[in-house]
Amino acid sequence: LKLLQEHSVTIVIRACEASLYSSTLLEQNGITVYNWDFSDGSDPPKPIVVNWLKLLQEFFGPEPSTGPKKTIALHCVAGLGRAPVLVALALIQLGLSSKDAITHVRNKRSGAFNSEQIKFLLKFKKHKPSACSIS
Predict the structure, then answer these.
(1) Please, what is the end-to-end C-alpha distance for the chain in angstroms?
(2) Is the dihedral of CA 110, 41, 99, 63 positive or negative?
(3) What is the mean pLDDT of residues 16-23?
(4) Catalytic residue among 16, 76, 100, 132
(5) Choosing from 16, 37, 40, 43, which is the catalytic residue?
(6) Pairwise CA distance, residues 97 & 71, whole Å
(7) Rounded to an integer, what distance in angstroms lies between the CA atom of residue 65 and that of residue 44?
(8) Of the candidate ranges 20-34, 38-52, 121-135, the one whose mean pLDDT is the lowest
(9) Is residue 40 among the annotated active site residues?
(10) pLDDT by residue (tens digit) across 61-83?
């Protein structure tokens, strides 16, 4: 909790089983937890992609912020597949090419992505903001 607070985290995306830990303490301290579990080693399902892109748009807005620091924490279990794919999608939304996003994430997290996830990212194109809701 202390580390999350030190980094101004107000949202945690849990891309793994919710049973790993209780979100109660986080929520009691003003941190919203989204449970967006999907199969380890797979691509995120379309509803998770849509909700992730919508959350990024709503949380950070269309332009760089000059206001207080805002941070989303994102995790899975090992940090090699599910979370890195979502980070790469965010980087692509910011304008990086798929290849550059993959390289950047792999430079930070060696071993990130399997071949299926790389194919998914290489096909992914930047999306316009959606009117879908976050759940």
Answers:
(1) 23
(2) negative
(3) 80
(4) 76
(5) 40
(6) 23
(7) 28
(8) 121-135
(9) yes
(10) 766 666 667 788 888 877 668 89
Sheet containing 9-14: order of strands? 32-35, 9-14, 71-75
Q: Rounded to whole angstroms, what are the CA distances from 59 to 40, 53, 55?
A: 26, 10, 6
> Is 132 considered catalytic here?
no
Q: Measure the CA–CA gap between 71 and 87, rounded to whole angstroms.
A: 13
pLDDT tier, 131 (very low <50, low <70, confident <90, very high otherwise): very low
Residues 6+ apart with CB under 8 A from 105: 84, 87, 88, 91, 112, 113
- What confidence score (pLDDT) does residue 38 get? 84
